Amino acid sequence: MSIAVPLRSESAAPAFRQLADSLNDVFWIYGPQRARFHYVSPAYEREWLRSASALYADSRDWLAPVHEDDRQRLQASFDRLAFGEGYSMEYRTTTCCGAQRWIAERAVPLAREDGHSLQFAGVSQDITAHKEVELQLLRSDRRKDEFLAMLSHELRNPLHAIRSATAVLETCVDGLAIEGRAICIIERQVDHLTRLVEDLLDVSRITHGKIRLHSEVVRLGEVIEAAVDANRALVDASRLHLRVKRPPAELWILGDVVRLTQVFSNLLHNAIKFSVAGGIIEISVRRGEGNQQVSVSVRDEGAGIAPNLIDSVFDLFTQDEQSLARNRGGLGIGLSVVRSLVKLHGGAVSVRSDGVGKGSEFVVALPLACAPIAVTSASAVEPRHGTNQRVLIANGTRDVVEAMRVPLEMGRHAPRLACDG
Q1: Strand ranges (DSSP E) for 228-359?
Q2: Residue 393 CA to chain centroid, in angstroms?
Q3: SS3 breakdown of the chain: % helix, strand, coil, rounded to 5?
Q4: Rounded distance, CA 312 to CA 206, Å?
């Protein structure tokens, strides 16, 4: 079915052309009987950088920039104009600079008052930006689906291990060695679950701007040492060699100790996860130019990063194919958290890799701070030690409160419980 647009007055033509000339979309009039363009708006040359004179001389020039996979469909649509049929379609073109554009095009017949079709009016709109947004939404939706699949897998495995280990403890009476191994399994899997949950919570906090830094001037060496200590057991269990190269002078930075430790712990954990037994992980610290900043590098000899993932490795839920195959843990969250936390500290993080199987290097750059002035206080309150301490435990979950109560009572303290809000 075609829609005829009647031209009832020749006096309307100048105003119609003036309107067409002002549009960024390409407006055109085509006569299928002689297969020629009668008019093409200035946007064809201004926006598309194509020659209008060449198009008037040969209508086939319209098809020249069309992508080869779409050219035949557009040609078929032009051929149907001879039978009075308009069309609406989307296709790709290639600019003179080699860039790809998406075009949405529609053609409708113009008619005399007697109803006989003379020619067709068409409008071609550049929808490249719309298509890019559409593609980003599709990618985000796919990442969401992949994330949900990974989340269910990551949470199911630790829970299954914990359930099995608990069953062993319930049935074990005299097997103390077996009981000890079961407890170790529970501890490892609980640590794994805790890391996953903390990463998820951090993503939520960062997304909603709820991260609050408790900044102070701290020794960078202590922060790195804390991150190394947090991953030492995993380094040993993975049979890796960890080297830490410190600068000759003490370096100070302004930041949140907990969050900075989390940054370097995440990077070190990532290096461990993608390294193989016997590999070397190196942490090095060096001053930047002008002594205004410090750079901390975490380099490994592991799986490396594919070139197509380098630009998106810090994006939320990004995973390489090996991670998606589930031979490595994680949800694709840790590096996104690293980037956000480093940015909150006024720094930047970058990554370099020579490709798959050639290792990777993450570099965190942070501004340096002046060393603090030592202050002593005679009124400092001495911590209380020993037994018979009164302790208030407040939590909304009774199981958590009960779990904290038991060791305190075993230490001969007097806990008070509050779990009803």
Answers
A1: 241-245, 252-255, 280-287, 293-300, 348-352
A2: 38
A3: 45, 25, 35
A4: 18
Q: Residues near 218 by Cβ (< 8 Å), separated by ≥ 6? A: 252, 253, 254, 255, 257, 260
The pair of three-digit structure tokens given for residue 288, joined into one six-digit string: 């930047």
5 pairs with which residues across the strands? 110
C-alpha–C-alpha distance, residues 25 and 318, integer Å: 37
Residue 281's DSSP bridge partners are: 242, 300
- Least confident segment among 41-55, 70-84, 105-119, 176-190: 176-190
pLDDT digits (tens, 9 = 90+) for 224-234: 999 999 899 88
Report the predicted TM-score, pTM, of the whole model to 2 decimal places: 0.53
Q: Are residues 366 and 410 in the same domain?
A: no
At residue 294, does pLDDT exceed 80?
yes
pLDDT of residue 378: 46
Number of domains in the chain: 4
Higher per-residue pLDDT: 333 or 317: 333
Angstrom distance (rounded) from CA 319 to CA 330? 9
Spatial contact of 390 and 412, defined as CB atoms under 8 Å apart: no
Indicate the residue type of 133: V
Kindly state the tokens that stand for 328.
């490595």
* Predicted confidence (pLDDT) at residue 65 exceeds the cutoff of 60: yes
Predicted pLDDT at 122: 92
Q: Which domain holds residue 95?
A: 5-126
Domain end residue (candidates: 126, 158, 177): 126
